Amino acid sequence: MVDDLFSSSHPLLPPKTEDDQLDWLRLLRSRRVGISTFYRLLAEHGTARNALEHLPYIAQSRGLAGYRACSRKDAMRELSQGIKYGARLVFRGNPTIRNNWAKFQMHRL
User: How many CB atoms lie within 10 A of CB 15?
Assistant: First the structure.
């Protein structure tokens, strides 16, 4: 019986660079990638970029021919539209988000 599927037990860290952030968005917006698959792919491949490179092969091994991950262009378009309306990306593990969430909860009381 396998006790641990992954060799590392460190917590998932948020993306550090804008390219990493865009890769996270691309991975999440890729067809057939939900939140559970997203985290599994990050754990298996180490980075969103590595996961994106492997997605077509993973899809092909499951019978999906011609699979393409979300393009950089589509992710940039979504990001630009969001910024236009005041949205910003939120990443699990980002301390700024945690602090803002705490402030938000205080205002609700």
Answer: 19
Q: Nearest-5° angle of CA 79, CA 82, CA 88? A: 85
Tell me the whole-structure pTM to 2 decimals.
0.77
Please count the other Cβ atoms lying within 10 Å of the Cβ belonging to residue 99: 10
Torsion of CA 80, 84, 89, 90, to 10 degrees: -170
Separation of alpha carbons 4 and 10, rounded Å: 13
CA distance 70 to 1: 36
Q: How far apart are CA 48 and CA 9, in angstroms?
A: 18
Q: What's the CA gap between 24 and 56, in Å, rounded?
A: 16
How confident is the model over 66-79, as pLDDT tens digits? 999 999 999 999 99
Q: Measured in whole angstroms, how far is the alpha carbon of residue 38 from the centre of its chain?
A: 6
| pLDDT tens digits along 22-43 | 999 999 999 999 999 999 999 9
Cα separation, 16 vs 102, in Å, equals 22
